[in-house]
Amino acid sequence: MKLLVAFVLLCALVPGFTSAPGEPIVATHYITNVLITMHLYDTKAELQSDLEVDGVKGYSECEINEEENIAYCDIYSVRPTHIDDDATTTVGHEVLHGVFGLYHGL
């Protein structure tokens, strides 16, 4: 069984590793079954304090099992409060890491 653990936190911190909106997605895998555990915070300061890292607005940690086509992801984000607010976009971004892997900045 091939198991890949993707830690995306560092990707957000490395200059040049993040992508601009509109940049094409380059998938490192394609998983259609994603089981998500959400970790929501009231403020960005609480999120960054808990993760012990400054400068992030979201984080995901996924265990990928390509043979069984499933990703188990923990997603950390500020709690979305409005439709399509920054937190909502961040959650969607992190979910896509479970589906597509390290899909930006490659």
Gist of the model:
This protein is an alpha+beta fold. It has a domain at 1-10 and 26-82.
Structural features, described:
About 25% of the residues lie in helices and about 30% in strands. The chain has helices at about 10-15, 45-50, 85-100; strands at about 5, 35-40, 60-65, 70-80. It is built from three helices and four strands, in the order βαβαββα. It starts with a strand and ends in a 6-residue tail after the last helix. The relative contact order is 0.30. Strands 1-3-4-2 form a four-stranded mixed β-sheet. The chain has a domain at about 1-10 and about 25-80.
Globally, the shape reads: globular
Secondary-structure element series = EHEHEEH
The pLDDT mean sits at: 81
Q: Gyration radius, to the nearest Å?
A: 13 Å
Strand content: 25-35%
Main-sheet strand order equals 1-3-4-2
Largest sheet: 4 strands, mixed
Q: For this entry, what is the oligomeric state of its chains?
A: single chain
Q: Can you tell me the residue ranges where pLDDT is under 50 for at least 5 consecutive residues?
A: 1-17
End-to-end CA span: 25 Å
Number of alpha- plus pi-helical segments: 3
The secondary-structure class comes to: alpha+beta
Give the helix proportion (percent range): 25-40%
Number of strands: 4
Descriptive labels:
106 residues, globular, disordered N terminus
Please render the helix and strand layout as text.
Layout: E1 3-7, H1 9-13, E2 33-41, H2 44-51, E3 58-65, E4 70-78, H3 86-100
Parallel strand pairs: 2-4
Antiparallel strand pairs: 1-3, 3-4
